[in-house]
């Protein structure tokens, strides 16, 4: 199965133009797509509903959307009727197979005094694969605070670890027909893949929280309940392969860095076949990443 993750920057490409058709062409037809920076009703992108636009451009896919930011954008018309709109910013998950259940987890957020900080989320979907059910996460960590990202990394790991014990959208064997035609609770498997823009480099301390610290003598000291970096495990290329060219900010110059990752639970790591970064993509300031798993 082929998985893709792409921070689409609201559709704004390297030429500063919004072009969703270009993004769709760059993604192609993988089995599962994880998107970040998908927004609804923001002025800079024409007050458009990007979730609906993208869903229409991928008509053969099931999809769910999980906003981190969710604020009022309603219009009260002259007759007093409310035209309902929510200004949202978040993650999207699309799958050729049905998304059996979904949860949108809110990640920790620090209340910063001056730096602009957005609420971030972790969108979870359970899909069936030829090897059985799999949890897929699309996420986007904080862009400005290393400590905030560390808290988000620890929360992500906790969500993955606790999921099987908590059960899915409901648990128990006595659900009525009001909830299910089959009587079965949605599965909540242990195996998981987490894809997205983590806003951290492989040299950052937050990276070690996710995959374990590096030791000169013994290499990566991953624990059984850590995650595995699919790029590193598959030996697909330069460990610091850039996936984004960031604009200059404050005292930080323009830099090309690896910010986008695919992490898997250790039991899924042996099924990684390959990973690829499309360095030619022009649809965003990020490049899409692709992972193939033997499922």
From TrEMBL:
Pfam families, alphabetized: Exo_endo_phos
A GO molecular-function descriptor: endonuclease activity
Keywords for the protein's UniProt record, in alphabetical order: Endonuclease, Hydrolase, Nuclease
Protein name: Endonuclease/exonuclease/phosphatase family protein
Endonuclease/exonuclease/phosphatase domain boundaries: 4-286
InterPro entries the UniProt entry points to: Endo/exonu/phosph_ase_sf (IPR036691), Endo/exonuclease/phosphatase (IPR005135), GPI-anchor_lipid_remodeler (IPR051916)
């Amino acid at each position: 199965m082929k998985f893709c993750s792409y921070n689409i920057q609201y559709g704004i490409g390297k030429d500063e133009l919004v072009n969703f058709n270009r993004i769709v062409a760059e993604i192609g037809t993988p089995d599962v797509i994880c998107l970040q920076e998908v927004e609804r009703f923001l002025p800079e992108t024409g007050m458009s509903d990007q979730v609906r636009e993208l869903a229409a451009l991928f008509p053969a896919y099931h999809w769910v959307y999980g906003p981190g930011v969710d604020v009022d954008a309603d219009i009260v018309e002259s007759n007093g009727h409310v035209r309902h709109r929510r200004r949202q910013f978040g993650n999207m998950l699309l799958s050729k197979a049905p998304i059996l259940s979904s949860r949108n987890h809110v990640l920790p957020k620090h209340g910063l005094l001056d730096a602009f900080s957005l609420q971030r989320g972790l969108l979870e979907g359970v899909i069936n694969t030829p090897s059985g059910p799999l949890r897929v996460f699309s996420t986007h960590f904080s862009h400005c605070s290393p400590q905030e990202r560390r808290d988000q990394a620890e929360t992500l790991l906790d969500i993955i670890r606790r999921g099987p014990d908590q059960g899915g959208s409901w648990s128990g064997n006595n659900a009525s027909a009001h909830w299910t035609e089959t009587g079965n609770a949605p599965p909540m498997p242990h195996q998981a893949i987490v894809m997205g823009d983590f806003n951290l480099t492989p040299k950052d301390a937050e990276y070690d929280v996710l995959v374990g610290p590096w030791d000169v003598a013994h290499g990566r000291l991953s624990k059984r309940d850590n995650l595995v970096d699919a790029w590193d495990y598959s030996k697909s290329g330069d460990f610091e392969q850039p996936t984004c060219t960031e604009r200059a900010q404050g005292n930080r110059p323009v830099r090309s860095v690896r910010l986008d990752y695919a992490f898997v639970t250790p039991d899924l790591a042996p099924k990684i076949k390959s990973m690829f970064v499309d360095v030619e993509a022009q649809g965003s300031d990020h490049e899409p990443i692709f992972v193939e798993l033997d499922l």
